Each structure stands twice: as C-alpha cells, then as structure tokens.
Amino acid sequence: MGLSKTEVNLRRLLAAAPQQQNQGKLVHYVATLREQLAEERTPEGLPRVSKAQLNEYSEKIEAVAAKPPSGDRSPSSIEDSNNAKSVKLDAAAHAHIEKHRQLQEDLTDEMVGLARKLKESSLMISRSIKNTEKVSEFLFCH
C-alpha cells in the first residue's frame, strides 16, 4: 500500500521543520504536524500506518516542538524564549496524555483480539462449509 497524501505532507513538513528559523512559523508547523498525525487514523480510530511509525512520527514532532529557537537573537528575544520555556505541561496534562495513550494501547490490543477472533470464526465457517459440501456430495452420490 502506498503513502497517503497526508503522510507524504507529514513527512515533507517533518523534513522542513528543523530548518525553520521563524519561531512563529515553527509553532504553526508543529500544530499542523500534530493535525496531520491525527488524520493518519481512520474514522474508527484505527491507525492508517503502523503503531511503530505513528510513534516515530510523534517523537519527531515532539523533538521539533522542543527545539529551542536558533540564530542571532537580541537580549529581549532571549528573555522571551526563557519565558516561553517556562510554559510546561503540568502533571495533570501529562496524566491526561498518558491516560489517552493507555486507552489507545488498550483499544489497539482489543482490536487485535477482535481481528484474531474474526479470523478464527472465518476459518471455522470455511471448514464447516467444506464439510457440508463433502456430506452433500456423499449423499447425492449414494
């Protein structure tokens, strides 16, 4: 299966984001990257890409988001960036994020279990149909 348009855009933006010097644009890039990552899920909440790939994209996005602004800066811009650094996620936000990650993992595990059961049921039905065909052939032949 090929890459979706969203995934292609996500990869391009991830490649361009580290070179972005304008902090305002970088913030916009990160927001867009997060939106695109969220779009890599089906309406049912299933990932369109592997869980490992989702985690890799997420880590890269967070690395870009955590990147301090670079380049020549005046003392006032350094002071502004220090103020921006002090805006961190509190424990409640981290707990909320962790709760949703756990819910996502639980949902993924449940979906894997359901897929396994569906496969087993399909195999049982297939065997049953084959057995029924054999019995029918036997009855019609005798």
TrEMBL record:
<dbReference type="GO" id="GO:0005484">
    <property type="term" value="F:SNAP receptor activity"/>
</dbReference>
<dbReference type="GO" id="GO:0031201">
    <property type="term" value="C:SNARE complex"/>
</dbReference>
<keyword id="KW-0256">Endoplasmic reticulum</keyword>
<keyword id="KW-1133">Transmembrane helix</keyword>
<keyword id="KW-0812">Transmembrane</keyword>
<keyword id="KW-0653">Protein transport</keyword>
<dbReference type="Pfam" id="PF09753">
    <property type="entry name" value="Use1"/>
</dbReference>
<keyword id="KW-0813">Transport</keyword>
<dbReference type="GO" id="GO:0005789">
    <property type="term" value="C:endoplasmic reticulum membrane"/>
</dbReference>
<feature type="region of interest" description="Disordered">
    <location>
        <begin position="65"/>
        <end position="84"/>
    </location>
</feature>
<protein>
    <submittedName>
        <fullName>Uncharacterized protein</fullName>
    </submittedName>
</protein>
<dbReference type="InterPro" id="IPR019150">
    <property type="entry name" value="Vesicle_transport_protein_Use1"/>
</dbReference>
<keyword id="KW-0931">ER-Golgi transport</keyword>
<dbReference type="GO" id="GO:0015031">
    <property type="term" value="P:protein transport"/>
</dbReference>
<feature type="compositionally biased region" description="Polar residues">
    <location>
        <begin position="73"/>
        <end position="84"/>
    </location>
</feature>
<dbReference type="GO" id="GO:0006890">
    <property type="term" value="P:retrograde vesicle-mediated transport, Golgi to endoplasmic reticulum"/>
</dbReference>
<comment type="similarity">
    <text>Belongs to the USE1 family.</text>
</comment>
<keyword id="KW-0472">Membrane</keyword>
